[in-house]
């Protein structure tokens, strides 16, 4: 199956190793679950919000990736 055209143009997402205190991670994971996000998505959401509030979010930063499964390109 071929990815949609907009996915072909997206740059690869940057991967980083993050070390957290286990209690901080547990609290973050609970919060993420309440917001129906993964812990990774919650971290990105919070970092983007903090950058925006500080006036430091680059204009070139794309939108948050859509949550959930990608839409099916096949018709039922």
From TrEMBL:
InterPro entries: Arc_rbn_hlx_hlx (IPR013321), Ribbon_hlx_hlx (IPR010985). Residues 54-76 are annotated as: Disordered. Gene3D superfamilies: Met repressor-like. It comes from Streptomyces endophyticus. SUPFAM superfamilies: Ribbon-helix-helix. It comes from the Bacteria. Residues 56-76 have a biased composition (Low complexity). This is Toxin-antitoxin system HicB family antitoxin. The lineage of its organism: Bacteria, Bacillati, Actinomycetota, Actinomycetes, Kitasatosporales.
